[in-house]
Amino acid sequence: GITGKHYRIQGSKFEQPSSKVVLDSIFFKLPKDKERGVILYSLGVGSSINPLCDPFQIATLLQLGYSVFIYDQEGYGLSSGQCNIDRWVPDTTMAYDFLVNEMKYPSGSVIAYGESFGAGTTSELSKHRPLKAMILESPFTSPKDWADQRLSITAIYPDFLFMEPTFSNLEMLKGKHPPVLVIGTALDKNVPVSHARQLADQGAQPFQYLELPTSPHVYVNVKDRGLYQKQLKHFLDQFSEINE
Question: 181 forms bridges with which residues in the sheet?
Fold first, then answer.
């Protein structure tokens, strides 16, 4: 029953100050007296906010008392520019700054949720902006590890030649980080669940791990929805700020 409102986020490219960036976004905003916090939601490669086919995750977050801000990277949907992985971290940072500067959420109060490649973008965001917590769904350990499994020829190249930034969720989890919930999808054919399991095995506290046994990539199967809702509530309840 919550209607999202479109916002056009405007900014400039740091490397090209005269070049304007416009990102399309939707803000599902709860009434202040029912709002426990705010979620910055980052999609993966090939996904857009306009043709979302299953808003279950967003609906769950709203039901738990969290407003959700979701946006399109450059080149996606109604956002300006062209698709370029190099722009994902600056775009995500711009979305975060919009919540803080325009929507007046305190810096450090934002919880970041990332799907697939959006999980890697979320990990990179944590290097540049303070986050209250992070949720990583269907994540890889790193794009380099994922490519090594798919195309073994990439394994002969050293990591520093592959991608910068690294978008490495494992690197983030091994260091100092805010509380993290990792969600692995057991039937994932895009990013094998072994990546999420490795994050759970090697990550430093504080983090929680949830594995959805019948779910594919960035999708919560009907059989797993009760499990997803229960774990998400357990994780988010520790950050509740509702005015009661």
Answer: 135, 208
Please report how the helices 56-63 and 225-236 are oriented relative to each other, as an axis angle in degrees rounded to 10: 40
pLDDT tens, position by position, 122-170: 999 999 999 999 999 999 999 887 777 766 544 444 544 456 788 999 9
- Per the CB < 8 A criterion, the answer to whether 2 and 62 are in contact is yes
Task: Give the up-direction half-sphere exposure of residue 22: CA atoms within 13 A in the CB hemisphere.
Answer: 7
- At residue 134, φ and ψ (nearest 5 deg) are -140, 145
Q: pLDDT value at position 14?
A: 62
**What average pLDDT is seen over the chain?**
90
H or E stretch including 146?
helix 143-150
What's the pLDDT score for residue 156? 42
Query: Quick one: what percent of the chain has pLDDT higher than 70?
Result: 88
Structure tokens at 94: 């711009």
* Nearest-angstrom CA–CA distance, 97 and 191: 30
